[in-house]
Amino acid sequence: MISILLNIGLLLLSVSTLGFVYRVVKGPTTPDRVIALDAIGINLIGMTAITSVILRTEAFLEVILLLGILAFIGTVAFSKFLEKGVIIENERKS
Amino acid sequence: MKMKENLEVIFAAIVVIGAIINLISAIGVIRLPDVYTRNHAASKGATLGILLILSSVFLFFWVEEGYMNARLLLGIIFVFMTAPVAGHLISRAAYNSGIPLWEKSGQDALKATKQKVKNK
């Protein structure tokens, strides 16, 4: 019963990841693609959590934290690049 | 022993509910017309779904192992804090790089405010 429910959850997450991949491929503008990639990263966190329940291990729980941090940093860097053209500003305006 | 199994079935059902919410947000990202509405669907729906999944996994390990897992709790708090911020940043970058709203949307309040600031 538990494993059937967990497998259904993994299947639904995979289908929703396919939907986000469709938006990454088709999306007319760059922010569409960035939004969809961020959501794919968040879905990956959920898949890791469900897989670690299925395998009954606690070894993958750092991966959850790590994927969350990486998705956030990637989105922030992309939005700074889209808004200002540079990610890290080196020149001082004084 | 029976109680523990019933609790674990309930937590697995919460995992399925979170996955359904994620699927709904993916359908919204496919079907909605412009960047801002898609961002609304993606950031809110995916965040709520993942919070349900992560909290039920946290409770699952708590019931199964008997002690709280601090890493998972930290992950829940981090995702809850950063996903809306990321949505806000990418939406603001889209507006400032000049991507138009959907042509049927009612009003653009930010445009009027920016005009007022520029005229001052």
Automatic annotation (TrEMBL), chain A:
GO CC aspect terms: plasma membrane
Sequence intervals crossing the membrane: 6-25, 34-54, 60-82
Keyword Cytoplasm recorded: no
Please tell me whether the keyword Methyltransferase is annotated for this protein: no
Can you provide one Gene Ontology molecular function annotated for this UniProt record? sodium:proton antiporter activity
Compartment(s) where it occurs, according to its Swiss-Prot or TrEMBL record: Cell membrane
Q: Which UniProt keywords apply?
A: Antiport, Cell membrane, Ion transport, Membrane, Transmembrane, Transmembrane helix, Transport
Topology versus the membrane, per the UniProt entry? Multi-pass membrane protein
> Mainly localized where?
membrane
Q: Which InterPro entries match?
A: MrpF/PhaF-like
Q: What family does the database annotate?
A: Belongs to the CPA3 antiporters (TC 2.A.63) subunit F family.
What name goes with this protein? Multisubunit sodium/proton antiporter, MrpF subunit
What is the organism of origin for this protein?
Litchfieldia salsa
Q: What lineage is this protein's organism placed in?
A: Bacteria, Bacillati, Bacillota, Bacilli, Bacillales
Automatic annotation (TrEMBL), chain B:
Question: Membrane spanning segments where?
Answer: 7-30, 42-63, 70-90
Location(s), subcellular: Membrane
- UniProt superkingdom: Bacteria
Which topology term describes how it sits in the membrane? Multi-pass membrane protein
Q: How is this protein annotated for GO cellular component?
A: membrane
- Gene Ontology MF: a single term: sodium:proton antiporter activity
Report the protein name in the record. Answer: Multisubunit sodium/proton antiporter, MrpG subunit
Q: Which organism is it from?
A: Litchfieldia salsa
